Amino acid sequence: MSLKEQYEGFLESSPIWLEDSLFGLSQFTKLPSKHLTIPNELAIEIPKNEVLGKRIERLFEYYIDTSDRYTLIAKNIQIFKNKVTLGELDFLLRDTKINKDIHIELVYKFYVYDPKLPEEYDRWIGPNRKDSFIYKIEKLKNKQLPLLHREETNQVLRDLNLKQTEIEQKVCFLGHLYVPLHMKHHNFSYVNPECIKGYWLHFEDIKQQQNKNNLFFIPKKQDWVTHPRHNIVWHSFDKIEAELTHSIAQKKSPLLWIKSGENSFERLFIVWW
């Protein structure tokens, strides 16, 4: 996929929750993509093999740099104590519309919903069960956001001519959510429905349910943010089955795109667990 198509996917991404504040976290909301013009060539360089998290940071930075409202003050600000890293502030911005300095922690996640887990918020987990929504929320509240108020951080902010007590904190928590197939139309009252991009199945289920007329593609992780409509090369299920089998054997849940018509696409995770 092209960088433009990845950036378009980033702009089409939505905050995971609808309220301005959830768990006491104030939300930074970017402009919807329909209000923005995306050039054919982006004035940005990202290494071809850059991991998805760093790639999203660069796309967010580009969004800020091309905005007529925000000015980037600093990014990836390392905070140290006695040469030991305490943490990092993702972005410091100036909101020129309201004349306010903002610290933003950027989060971009892919979660699947496991209804078998006991607590509702705990049910949103990473496709490989190594991450969770609640874990990230707790990390933001207990580690990443409090970092702004440390004295070691204050020294860095003074060098940037910023006042620690006047900086507002927000999170930009974007993501794609995948639910069990039977819950595709379930209403999650606290979740932004625009974030539900597809569903998940076990490997045996996809083999049983796949239509012989469908076409398939397994995107690289750096392209997970991209919409399947941009993909050109598609395969029969027989051509991708071995790759899916290998991923499942390695306990990795691959993302799968399905094309069932000229403009009909589905996204789903094939989970190994």
Molecular structure report:
The protein has helices at 3-12, 52-65, 133-144, 151-159, 203-209, 237-249, and strands spanning 14-15, 21-22, 25-26, 70-81, 84-95, 100-113, 124-125, 167-180, 196-202, 215-217, 255-261, 264-271. By secondary structure, it is of the alpha+beta class. The strands form 2 sheets. Strands 1, 4, 5, 6, 7, 8, 9, 10, 11 and 12 form a 10-stranded mixed sheet that branches. A hairpin with a 2-residue loop joins strand 11 and strand 12 (264-271). The model has no long low-confidence stretch (mean pLDDT 94).
| Overall strand count | 12
For the CA atoms, what is the radius of gyration? 20 Å
Kindly name the structural category: alpha+beta
Total count of domains: 2
Order of helices and strands: HEEEHEEEEHHEEHEHEE
Biggest β-sheet, characterized?
A: 10 strands, mixed
Uncertain segments: none
The chain-level mean pLDDT equals 94
| Span of the ends, CA to CA | 29 Å
Q: How many alpha or pi helices? A: 6
Principal-axis shape equals globular
Strand percentage: 25-35%
Share in helix:
10-25%
Task: Give a quick precis of the structure.
This protein has 273 residues and is an alpha+beta fold.
Task: From the structure above, extract its key features.
273 residues, alpha+beta, 2 domains, 10-stranded mixed beta sheet, two-stranded antiparallel ribbon, 6 helices, 12 strands, 24% helix
